[in-house]
Amino acid sequence: MTFTDKNNHLTVLLSGVIDRILLYRQFSPRSKEAGGVLIGERRGPHLVIKRISEPSVGDKRTRHSVDRCGPGHQTAVDEAFAQSDGTLQYLGEWHTHPEDLPSPSPTDEYSWMKNIICSEPMIVIIVGRKRIWAGKKIGRTISHLIEI
User: Fold this and answer.
1) CATH for 2-147, among 3.40.50.620, 1.20.120.530, 3.90.1150.10, 3.40.140.10?
2) pLDDT tens digits, 51-66
3) Average pLDDT of 7-25?
4) How far apart are CA 50 and CA 28, in angstroms?
5) What 3-state DSSP class applies to 6?
6) Active-site residue (options: 33, 93, 109, 147)
7) What does the domain layout of the chain look like in residue ranges?
8) Catalytic residue status for 120
9) Are the CB atoms for 3 and 147 separated by under 8 Å?
10) Cα→Cα distances 73→8, 49, 80, 99, 109, Å
């Protein structure tokens, strides 16, 4: 799956990443939000998401929220970085919403502004039941990415 921004900079999610995050879609009224981090490479202005962290022990999950409290997310980033001699790194976050066509809530936007601090572009993804919403955070601005 490939997304682009207004400058034609690409964000590519490898098929294995898509397969994993789609497993967490909230089809049941009892299913809880899930989330993790995005791990991949920077290739000039383009980003390639190669791995994710998945919900882990210690995460706080409800129907309409997720808080990645478990240590498994940082461990996934640290291991990917070490195994790749530093080419794989933290590139952003993903989580689910219990809706067909997701979009960021004010809580999502506040959390991203507060917790994703980086001088380089970062990716944020929301997985809905029928569609994936993707955005790029640069500084204090989040821009919607278009699937191509």
Assistant:
1) 3.40.140.10
2) 999 999 999 999 999 9
3) 98
4) 28
5) coil
6) 33
7) 2-147
8) no
9) yes
10) 30, 15, 11, 25, 20
